[in-house]
């Protein structure tokens, strides 16, 4: 069953995904083309993580939360589209652990 | 055939936990099937919510072309896989296939429970012995439904396309395009309202399934002593309750589920049930492996 730490993990991961959606909305056509596959993948992994939480609960660690907080900062300060793509790939990888 | 049924039922009576008449067994089977059906409705609602949660907003063919063209002009079109990631939309693969598989696993436990009782009205001795085994399964699945509702209630599954719509609104507003921002905002607000209606429906359906599950659990606890009319009454009450659900508002359904969860967490019986592996349900349905 999900505990408070798992809830916080979901909250942070959804915030990171929202930041990627913000970046996508602000991007031009070429950047959107580059960002979309990575953002789609991150959304899919987010969904798998939520499914795992829904079914049995996932067990996150304080280190997982720290890594997500850092990633959110990276997305907020992404200088270019490549940094955004990299952040989306990292987010998908972090979430993939729980799927 | 009828004689054979009665003979088997008589035989079943000799065994413990088997105060069995075909009518009573039929009533129990109906109650189990009702629980299975209500649970299935609730699961349908959750599955649909997960599908929307996992789906990013569709991009038009024209937008895709504009993106691909602009990226290719800059030498940034990416790999073939990236391109497929942009334009591909095969059904049954990726996240939508994953959601269907996960919910298929969840449903399998409810189907196993229903099938465990199928032979009971025919006077099956084996079926009668599942009364106790099945009680664990009913309780475990009821507990699971309460937790499903709690999970989604604590952190709603707002569709990803809705999150994207809000991002689009922020962008339009930042650009000072009030007309576009208004359209984005209206679409966002409409999407939130639509989600809330589905969320509320899922909570009500879960409440109906949980009420049925708890009633069934109580019946199975005293199956030997429960009369046929009590069994039928409980099934009737389940249908009547489902009929009044439309009048139960979402927050009332959610708070009733929350109260049940608190109540169950404080009970030694439900704590034991919550710790049972779901795999035991399949074992219960498999002949010769009942607990």
TrEMBL record, chain A:
It comes from the Bacteria. This is Uncharacterized protein. It comes from Chitiniphilus shinanonensis.
Automatic annotation (TrEMBL), chain B:
Keywords: Signal. Residues 1-19 form the signal peptide. It comes from the Bacteria. The keyword Signal applies. This is Lipoprotein. It comes from Chitiniphilus shinanonensis.
């Amino acid at each position: 069953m999900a505990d408070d730490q798992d809830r916080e993990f979901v909250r942070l991961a959804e915030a990171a995904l929202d930041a990627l959606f913000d970046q996508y909305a602000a991007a031009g056509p070429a950047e959107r083309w580059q960002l979309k596959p990575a953002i789609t993948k991150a959304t899919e992994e987010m969904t798998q993580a939520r499914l795992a939480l829904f079914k049995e609960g996932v067990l996150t660690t304080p280190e997982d939360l720290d890594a997500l907080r850092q990633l959110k900062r990276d997305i907020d300060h992404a200088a270019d589209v490549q940094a955004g793509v990299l952040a989306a790939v990292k987010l998908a990888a972090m979430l993939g652990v729980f799927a | 055939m009828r004689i054979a049924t009665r003979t088997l039922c008589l035989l079943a009576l000799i065994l413990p936990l088997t105060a069995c008449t075909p009518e009573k067994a039929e009533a129990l089977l109906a109650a189990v099937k009702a629980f299975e059906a209500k649970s299935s409705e609730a699961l349908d609602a959750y599955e649909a919510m997960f599908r929307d949660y996992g789906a990013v907003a569709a991009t038009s063919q024209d937008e895709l072309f504009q993106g691909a063209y602009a990226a290719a002009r800059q030498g940034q079109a990416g790999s073939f896989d990236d391109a497929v990631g942009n334009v591909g939309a095969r059904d049954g693969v990726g996240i939508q296939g994953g959601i269907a598989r996960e919910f298929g696993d969840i449903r399998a436990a409810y189907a196993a429970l229903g099938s465990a009782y199928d032979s009971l009205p025919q006077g099956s001795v084996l079926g009668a012995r599942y009364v106790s085994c099945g009680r664990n399964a009913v309780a475990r699945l009821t507990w699971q439904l309460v937790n499903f509702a709690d999970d989604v209630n604590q952190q709603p599954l707002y569709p990803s396309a809705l999150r994207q719509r809000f991002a689009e609104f922020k962008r339009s507003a930042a650009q000072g395009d009030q007309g576009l921002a208004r359209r984005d905002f209206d679409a966002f607000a409409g999407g939130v309202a639509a989600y809330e209606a589905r969320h509320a429906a899922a909570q009500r359906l879960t409440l109906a399934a949980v009420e049925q599950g708890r009633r069934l659990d109580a019946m199975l606890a005293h199956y030997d002593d429960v009369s046929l009319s009590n069994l039928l009454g409980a099934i009737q009450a389940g249908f009547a309750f489902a009929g009044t659900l439309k009048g139960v508002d979402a927050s009332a359904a959610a708070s009733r589920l929350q109260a049940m969860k608190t109540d169950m967490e404080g009970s030694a019986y439900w704590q034991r049930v919550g710790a049972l592996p779901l795999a035991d349900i399949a074992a219960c349905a498999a002949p010769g492996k009942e607990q």
